[in-house]
Every structure is written in C-alpha cells, then in structure tokens.
Design goal:
Strand order of the largest sheet: 1-2
Helix content: 55-70%
Length: 318
C-alpha cells in the first residue's frame, strides 16, 4: 500500500467495520429490550406478514371464546327459568290430582283452580322477564316457529358460527290471551277470566284445560273430575315439552363447551407458531450481542491504530 496522506484507507475500513458492529449491536439491544425478533419490516418482511396473519387469527379466536362463554351464560339463564317453570308445572299436576278426587266439594275445587291459575300467571311472568342483554329468551317476542334464534360468532372467519335453533327458546307461557270473541285481552286477564283461546305459547293448551267450564261448572262431580283429569294429562304433556326444551339447551351448552376447548387449543397453537416467527431467541441474541461488543471494541482499537498510521510520513520528512 502506498504511503499517502490525503486518504487513510485503513481508517476507512476500520470505521466501516465499527459502524457495522454498532448497527448489529443496536439491533440486538432492540430485540432483547422488546422481546421481539421482528420490530420493523426490514428485520424480516415475510416474517412480519406471517406474524400479522397469525395475530389476526389469534385475536379472532380469543374473542370467539368470549362470545361462546356469553352464549353459555345465556343458555344457563334460559334453562334456570325453565327449571322454575317445571317446578310450578309439577305443582299443577299435584293440584289436578287432588281436584280429581271425588271427596272434594265445589269450594275446594275453586280454591285449587285459583291456585293453578296463579301458577300459570307466574310461569307466564317468568317467560316475560327472562332476558339476556335485553333479548327475550322464553317469550313470543323472540321465539318463532322456524329459523335460528341466536348465532354465535366463533372466530374471525365470517362463516365460523354456531346457530342455536328456536327449539330451545320457545315461549314457555301462554302466548297472547284472546277472549271467546277473539278480542285481544291481556294475558293476566285471560288467565283469570276463563278465556278459552290463547296463541301458541307452550302453556296455552294447559291454561285452556284449566279454564274449561267442565272443571267446575257442570252439575255433577263426575264431569268436574273429568275436567281435572284433562288438566293432569295436559300438565304431563307440558312438563315433557319443557324437558325437551331443557335437553336441547343442554345439548347446545355441550356443543359450545367442546367448541370453547377446541378454540382455546387453536389459539394456543397459533400463539406458539407466532412466537417461533416473531419472538426473540434470547440465547442466540445474547450471543450476538456479546460478539458485537467484542467487534466494537476491536474495531475501535484498530481505528485508533489506523489513525496513527499517517504519522509514519513525518519520519520520511525529517
């Protein structure tokens, strides 16, 4: 190499290597301090795209789990209400059995009929007040004869849903009460005033049997007994209908719980995959940092030596 003064090539080389060592050290410090191998697109452009796609799936799955747990809470709310209605229906069966006994008089049967009416009113009220997030679960305002009542979003994929069919959310009350002339009246008035026509709530047929004139107003006790026996039969059918409805809600809950388990597993696996792409490997990165520190110190020392090399020219000028 020629002995020149204007250009110190050795110093330039040493400076270049020092800058490269400092840049690598800065990258290592950033990765170690953030915990991420990819902090910006230049670190790994393809890896950043993969990590973002995985993050999208993970966020959708995690929110899906919360959605499904909300669905479980809603189903449990509905089932608890149906369980209460079943207890009242069991009491109606007991009362109808008592009323069918030939030893009772008209006053006794009137008291029994009044209690059954109050129980039906209570069941109807349960259906009307059972709501979740403002949505009626067991009254005619939501339940219809066809279609799905509620849809749960499981993930960020729009088609990944669970549909809860209407069969689990039928109206457990009487529906709307109508007078014999088909003029609309309130449910409570219809229940208490021998209304003979009701819309298609689950308890509509039962209250019609309770309000049937044959339960009390025929001359002979035998006809009244037959009326109470008809109530017994209809109450049995009502209890079975509620049991079917509860079993469907239980099936929905089991389906959702298994789906929650699956989505949690999916989220865990996706998180592990994202970690492989995005997270810092501290064992490897600390080794790179140590190497960079040594190279920085060596390059600094060599830069100092290179800066002293032009002094040799002075000895030539003496």
């Amino acid at each position: 190499m020629a002995a020149v003064l204007n250009t110190n090539a050795a110093s330039l080389y040493a400076s270049k290597n020092l800058q490269a060592a400092q840049s690598k050290m800065a990258d290592s410090v950033e990765r170690l301090s953030s915990g991420l191998r990819i902090n910006r697109a230049k670190d790994d452009a393809a890896g950043l795209g993969i990590a973002n796609a995985l993050t999208q799936q993970i966020n959708g799955a995690n929110q899906g789990v919360r959605n499904l747990n909300d669905g479980i809470s809603m189903i449990q709310t509905a089932e608890g209400a149906i369980a209460a209605a079943q207890e009242m229906a069991q009491r109606i069966v007991t009362l109808a059995t008592q009323g069918a006994n030939g030893t009772l008089g008209t006053t006794d049967r009137t008291a029994i009929k009044n209690e059954m009416r109050q129980l039906i009113t209570a069941i109807n009220d349960i259906g009307n007040r059972t709501k979740y997030s403002g949505n009626s679960l067991l009254s005619g305002s939501i339940a219809t004869t066809t279609g799905s009542t509620f849809t749960l979003q499981v993930s960020n994929v729009t088609t990944d849903t669970i549909s809860l069919g209407v069969g689990g959310f039928y109206d457990i009350g009487v529906g709307a009460a109508l007078s014999s002339a088909s003029a609309s009246v309130t449910d409570a008035v219809g229940i208490a005033t021998d209304a003979s026509t009701f819309s298609t709530g689950q308890a509509s047929a039962l209250i019609q049997k309770i309000n049937d004139s044959g339960v009390l107003q025929h001359a002979t006790a035998s006809t009244a007994i037959a009326g109470f026996q008809a109530v017994q039969t209809e109450a049995d059918l009502y209890i079975k209908a509620l049991s079917t409805q509860r079993s469907l809600l239980g099936a929905y809950q089991n389906q959702i719980e298994f789906t929650v388990s699956n989505v949690n597993e999916l989220s865990s696996n996706l998180s592990a995959a994202r970690s492989n792409v995005q997270d810092t490997d501290y064992a490897s990165e600390t080794a790179s940092l140590t190497k960079g520190q040594i190279l920085q110190q060596a390059a600094t020392a060599m830069l100092a030596q290179a800066n002293q090399m032009p002094n040799l020219i002075l000895s030539l000028l003496k």
